[in-house]
Design goal:
- The protein has an 8-stranded mixed beta barrel with strand order 1-2-4-5-6-7-8-9, surrounded by 4 helices.
- It contains 14 helices and 10 strands.
- The protein is α/β, with parallel strands linked by helices and about 280 residues long.
- The protein starts with a helix and ends with a helix.
- The structure holds ligand C2E and calcium ion (3 copies).
- Ligand C2E binds next to strand 2, helix 4, helix 5 and strand 6.
Length: about 280
Amino acid sequence: AKAEGRGIHRFFEPAMDVAVQTRRGVELDLRAALAERQFALAFQPFLDLSDNRIAGFEALVRWHHPVRGVVSPAAFVPIAEETGMIVPLGEWVLRQACREAARWPNGVRVSVNLSPVQFRSGDIDATVIAALRDAGLDPHRLELEITEGVLLQDNASTLAILHRLKGLGVRIAMDDFGTGYSSLGYLRAFPFDKIKIDRAFVADLSVRPDALAIVRAVTTLADSLDMTTTAEGVETEEQLSHLRGAGCTEVQGYLISRPVPAEAVAPMLAGECGE
Ligand code: C2E
Ligand code: CA
Ligand code: CA
Ligand code: CA
């Protein structure tokens, strides 16, 4: 039975399955999935190291496919970007994340990933404003995570949009910091509120001493630029203690919690208060 189970799993391996389909097929699949409400959000908390309390949750999209089961975003976000389906999907994510967050206690933030493609679509700022208004969410409680890809597109309007959103009180985070070619240059291009230190650097903390020097340099730089830092992918107590020592503002990772379904957020926050 075990061998059989493994065989079935391999047959429906999401990445493989997606790879053999045509782009058009996947696009149609995604479109149908959106209409049929097959997407859901998982929420992963990030912890403020100054008081060890949950500062907010990052919304991560999941595809509950009727046949393939839960498909990870790595398997469909790139195709959703190529086909443009990320625009309606991203809008759904944004609206759903704001609606959920509006039910959380007032200080708790929600963080939403934005694709560069959503910026090219033109009216992302109007979409954000409408999502906040319809959910009744204070803009200060929303963070938007963008990668350097957003600033890579040589587009003056991208910067204008980011400034407009920041002006509303929305916080802007640079995601996956350190993985690109000129991350430092991007810190000059836009006044981010938060830098997310990529989990590759966090993973290295346990194995190579120079990784700590890099993390310290990033937190020092962030401090002097009036930005906060969030370390991603924290999995061990050892990494956590290094990150505390390095003056990181927030931590996120399996050590604190895996991404959880929306219904699990309130109990997690309640459990925290009871501690
Ligand atoms: P990301 O924004 O860098 O998100 C962090 C990813 O690392 C998530 O994977 C999360 O589940 C995973 N992770 C968190 N803690 C740990 C840890 O301690 N160890 C390890 N090994 N992994 C950890 P996920 O949910 O599969 O998302 C993958 C990527 O897909 C995200 O990377 C993001 O780039 C993209 N994505 C997810 N949701 C959305 C969305 O709504 N819109 C867009 N545009 N992209 C999204
Ligand atoms: Ca992210
Ligand atoms: Ca990241
Ligand atoms: Ca990433």
